[in-house]
Amino acid sequence: MPLLKVSADHAVRPAGLVAVPSRVLTLITRLRFRRALKAGVGLLLSMLSASSLGSRRVVGLFSAEVKGIPAAHQHLGKSLCCRKPAFLSWFKFYLLFCLLLCTLCFTLFDSLSCWDSSPLYKHYQKLFNQTRDFHVPQSYLPASPKEINGTTNAPTTVAPTLPTTVAPTHPPTVAPTHPPTVAPTHPPTVAPTHPTTVAPTHPTTVAPTHPTTVAPTHPPIVAPTVASTAAPPGTQYHQAYARNYHFIMDNKEVCKNQTPFLVLMVPVAPNNLAARNAIRQTWGNKTRIRGEVVLTMFMLGSIGGNVEQLQEKLKQENKKHHDLIQSDFRDSYKNLTIKTMVIMDWLATRCPSAAYAMKIDSDMFLNIDNLVIMLKKPGIPKQNYLTGMLMSNCPVVRWKPSKWYVPEEMYPDPKFPTYTLGMGYVLSNDLPEKFLEISKSIKPFNIEDAYIGMCMKKLGLKPSEPPNPSQFKAYNTKYNRCSFSKVITYILESSQQLIDFWTDLKKPGPPCEVNTAEDAPQAPLC
């Protein structure tokens, strides 16, 4: 329950402590003192009515309860108990007389001013001031209209630290909603410097310190605390729409000089030269397979850090190999959806004549010969075709520490649509332009392969299972030459591993023994 603070001036303030008025404190002090005197008088009267034996027991009680008292002191206590009854009676009468005198003097104070000026009150007041504040629930301290003139449901109208001005843009200050609370004909008044007066009794509210500034008659508009999901100025549709970005390094002529049957698009980090060189030495080195032209291109984003030095190295690398494409989006794992859609943009605008394309990660083993053989089989569609390792009924990861965490505001559904695993999927080259168009209406999220699956779903299409699902594999336990000779994809651990496995696979001699059983499809990952 919210608390109110009642000060000495009866003003209502928010927060936890209540200052008791001085007059109430005085009454409490007098009541406590009188109660103590009454108890003392009662005790002495009971002692007078008791026998001499009872009095001696009272005195002996104090001496018996104290531990470790020297023998001389104990003897003194015993001697007091053994005094004559006349001495004890005179001693009790003397104590009673002193108490009665104090009581008489206290009751003769007719006014609070006399009590306030007494030394006893000042001493007691000094001690009591340390605990004058009490927590009082709001329900026990209703605020009168005079105390909160013109306020709304907010607990206060004026910030305690700024008693002279009311800033309309501060959240604690809510301007009155009733037009009569602002009197434009009245000259602007300045609130008193002391914080005791919160609101005047007349309808005129506290005016700003500058005479030219008038407080608004409506509540101030406060900006929302939730971050806006709207795209920045100049962005079309959303941040993952590929044509919001521009190519800063390109090879436009590669598809004009020849018509590729298959284009391999490899997303890779700008500084990962080792992965690019390993691919160039292995499956990216083959440009013609079974009479078909195969093209390998690397997609990069923009870089941070020592930009000029690394960018110059990238220019020299592209000048040598003519296989780098770079766009001006920020290269990061969280931006893989942007990177994938920029790949689709390049395929649709730079290489629309290609028959097929494959998006494949830079840490993959690719048996390019088996892939071309698969695509040349009869019955493989040339349009609306997407295949790879299919993922069905995969739940969305809502665990925040996970690498694949997707918040509900990005993707509210509990499961992803059927999609092909992003390690490597093959598509007919009519789909990139369709993906770009349909992506205008699809809110992006950070799982790039599932986003492509969402594009397929919006297009009314479904990914196709490959002719031999066992050829698309994810992780392998150990290298086996026969197994690697049959697959299309495998995920590797390093670039050096790719070079070693490829070298062993391509050495002379048959990779498998005769009548070797065919591998079974790998179970889905989700």
Give me a quick take on this structure.
With 526 residues, the chain is α+β, with helices and mostly antiparallel strands.
Distance between the termini: 48 Å
List how many beta strands DSSP finds: 18
Give the radius of gyration: 45 Å
Strand content: 5-15%
Low-confidence stretches: 1-18, 50-84, 109-115, 123-232
Based on CA inertia axes, which overall geometry fits?
elongated
User: Mean pLDDT across all residues, rounded?
Assistant: 73
Indicate the CATH architecture of one domain. Answer: Alpha-Beta Complex
- Enter the CATH topology name of one domain: Spore Coat Polysaccharide Biosynthesis Protein SpsA, Chain A
Give the helix/strand class.
alpha+beta
CATH class of one domain: Alpha Beta
Number of helices: 14
User: Sheet bearing the most strands, described?
Assistant: 8 strands, mixed
Percent helix, as a range, is 25-40%
Can you describe what's shown?
This protein is α+β, with helices and mostly antiparallel strands. Among the domains are: 132 residues, no CATH class; 234 residues, Spore Coat Polysaccharide Biosynthesis Protein SpsA, Chain A (Alpha-Beta Complex). The protein is 33% helix and 13% strand. The protein has 14 helices and 18 strands. Strands 6, 7, 8, 9, 10, 11, 13 and 16 form an 8-stranded mixed β-sheet that branches. It has a 3-stranded antiparallel β-sheet with strand order 2-1-5, with no helix packed on it. Strand 17, helix 13 and strand 18 form a beta-alpha-beta unit. The protein is elongated. The N terminus is likely disordered.
